[in-house]
């Protein structure tokens, strides 16, 4: 039987005269082992803010890493953060909405209408079906919907609200909806389906450190044609044309607060086959999520501590200097700092806490190279050694004069890679999904350690394809084709 808990930012937000539920402070859920070890938890996240990298954001993010079910999910939080995303999901509701609100319109001067939903319930009888449909797409505990008359009635904004903003006359409706929600079986939002055969590759020709160089993209186009797939390069300005394609392959550095995520979300909403899929982007772009996920599944990682503004000094008691401090969503060695003493620790964390409520502190593990195990569709695709940049402790030195400086590389046949490296890398990638991942690992005297999992690993001409050559691109195309054929009911 699943256990339900309600998360609040401050325990004082749940007043003494409120109904009796299991209420937990957000920081306790994030840091106490009793919650990270529990299984079958259902989380109702009622934090004051779901802002990116806030406590509320992390509660939903780590709930997913721990295998807990949460409302809202971190994906819902992201989807509600931009009109460009959620407008995709409300188009089929607009015609019903126009008919209902036109009937309710008392005079021609009324051009706005606001509705507050509690777990998909509202007190306006005519809009109950619409409220339920909105909750099916955007599962948030409290959601304010603003409608505007712009030629016809449309949903203008969707905004999640926090518990402490509710008025007294709204509390009874909230508690009724909460009790009803907790008594129902947990259901996931429905997914749409579509059919594919033209492959769009999103890239940015101006990106300084792209996941694939121009030669690799040319090889992909050439191999695609050989197997009956039209591969076409697209850029940011092609967003409106995305639905013209059958599948999407993102070859640009992904971030949650970036149009790459919007492309992935739109592609999925259109029923397209997409790599990187939105869930993989969400999971891989946050190192704190990965820490919880890997530890929770007994995968070896360096000693790691989650830092808050009120506990940053405690890291010295758990990790010896030098200590590596990481921002949660850095990429290509950016947002990673090595501190040698307490003064540097204070300087670095003080600056980084301006943008994130949580940081990651990790023991410094030096090796002359990192392993990169490329995994596609839960099978190993390539294996490389990336060597540290000259006179630097990372494979990429962003402080070098001019352009960032890479270390060397060596691509090996899978059979020549230590079995433990392959085993751990494959397990780590499989925890994320069935897309394309690059798992970074270190071989140490204490065994193989997972450093991170990347959702859009580098595939550069003459590097990652050095062993397989065209076969690497062939395997990529074959995965897209197999998924497309499955969607069409074929045998893929």
Automatic annotation (TrEMBL):
Keywords for the protein's UniProt record, in alphabetical order: ATP-binding, Ligase, Manganese, Nucleotide-binding
GO molecular function, one term: ATP binding
UniProt cross-references to InterPro entries, sorted A to Z: ATP-grasp (IPR011761), ATP-grasp_RimK-type (IPR013651), ATP_grasp_subdomain_1 (IPR013815), RLAN_dom (IPR025839)
GO biological process: SOS response
GO CC terms of this entry: cytoplasm
The keyword Ligase is annotated on this UniProt entry: yes
Domain of life: Bacteria
PROSITE patterns recorded: ATP_GRASP (PS50975)
Domain ATP-grasp: 291-481
PANTHER family to which the protein is assigned, alphabetical: BETA-CITRYLGLUTAMATE SYNTHASE B-RELATED (PTHR21621:SF0), RIBOSOMAL PROTEIN S6 MODIFICATION PROTEIN (PTHR21621)
UniProt-recorded name of the protein: Carboxylate--amine ligase
Naturally occurring in which organism (per UniProt): Candidatus Nitrosoglobus terrae
